[in-house]
Amino acid sequence: MRQIAPLYYNDLGTAFYWKKDGKTLTDKVQIVFKETGFHFDEAELDTFAKLIDESCRKNTCDGCGLRHECMKFLLKTPVSQIDLAVSKYELDGIKDLVLGTLFKMRLQKFVYGIGQN
Questions:
Q1: Contact 108, 6 (CB under 8 A)
Q2: Which of 33, 52, 67, 75 is in Cβ range 3.0-4.6 Å of 84 for a Cys bridge?
Q3: Which residue ranges make up each domain of the chain?
Q4: CA distances to 8, 27, 109 from 5, in Å
Q5: What domain of life does the UniProt record list for this protein's source (predicted)?
Q6: Radius of gyration of the chain (CA)
Q7: For 63-79, what is each residue's pLDDT tens digit?
C-alpha cells in the first residue's frame, strides 16, 4: 500500500500528500529537497514562494567569480526559526518546486472542487 500521493517533483526535490487509512490528506503538503522537509498548508507554501521571490530579487551573482556555485544565499522560510543557506542553482530549483506544487494543489482543488459539474 502506498503511503504517499505524489504531487510534483523536479531534479532537486519532491512534493506529496501523506495518506492515512487509504485516504489522501490534502490539508498539508510535504516538500522535500536535499536533506530538508517541510509540511506546509497552502498559505504557508504561498508565503514560502514570496520569500523565495524576495531572496531572488535581493541576491545576484553579478561580478562574482564563483558563478552560482557558492552557498551565499540565505533563504528565509515560513518557519521563523529556520533559514536555509542555498546556492543559486538550489534557489532556482526550490522556486520551481514550490511554484509547481502550488499550481498542482490549486489545480486539483479546482478540478475536484468547484470545477465539478
A1: no
A2: 75
A3: 4-111
A4: 10, 13, 15
A5: Bacteria
A6: 16
A7: 666 655 565 788 999 99
